[in-house]
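Handout, section 3.2

Students often ask what a structure token actually looks like in practice. Rather than define it abstractly, here is a full record for DoxX family protein. The first block is the sequence as you would receive it.
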Amino acid sequence: MTLQSALWAGRIMSAFVVIALVADGTIQLFAPAQIASMLQETGFAMDLTRVVGPIILACAILYAIPATAVLGAILVTGFLGGAICAHVRIGELGSPPEIISLLLGAMTWGGLYLRAPRVRAILPLIR
């Protein structure tokens, strides 16, 4: 894989993550009734959507901006880890939301690795 194709692959992966996070954050803020059953299953109150939505959107913005992408990736990973933990807690090991969270987390760091030379400098897997 050339450096140019790696850069574009990273941008595409990162864009997918940002789109997924923005969609989730927007639903949390503007259509919480759509996710009410999932919140109830995982034991979260509906009122938390007004807090969680902006947090998700802030993480997406930080991840999308190159200068703050590493901080954004750390925050996104923490958020997705919490989502995975919530599903493990209620006995949904391997559930679709858990797998999606795991894949988004992997794409977050994979996309950042491919698009950010400073991350590749820390962990030089490709040349």
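Discussion prompt for tutorial groups: The mean pLDDT is 89. How would you have guessed this from the sequence alone?
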